[in-house]
Amino acid sequence: MTYFPFDSQHCELHFGSTSLDDTELDLNFWRQKDYFQNSTVKDEYEFPYIDMKKFMPSNEWKTDGEDEIHVPAPRRM
């Protein structure tokens, strides 16, 4: 935060369930234009649409029913 607002942060969100495994959990991502249509933060960040058709699970490891997706949300300057 030293060079705010010109710095960058790395944030990770982990979605999972303590009672369901990955075969019982269905995550649906929203589109930014529908969600932020009347929001004040819509001009501050660029939230990308996530196309889950290209998602490929790792063959090396698997967590407890969690899938990881890294999506940058760059701040508009």
TrEMBL record:
User: Which stretches are annotated as coiled coil?
Assistant: none
Instruction: Note one Pfam family from the annotation.
Output: Neur_chan_LBD
Q: What is this protein called?
A: Neurotransmitter-gated ion-channel ligand-binding domain-containing protein
- Which ranges carry the Neurotransmitter-gated ion-channel ligand-binding domain? 1-65
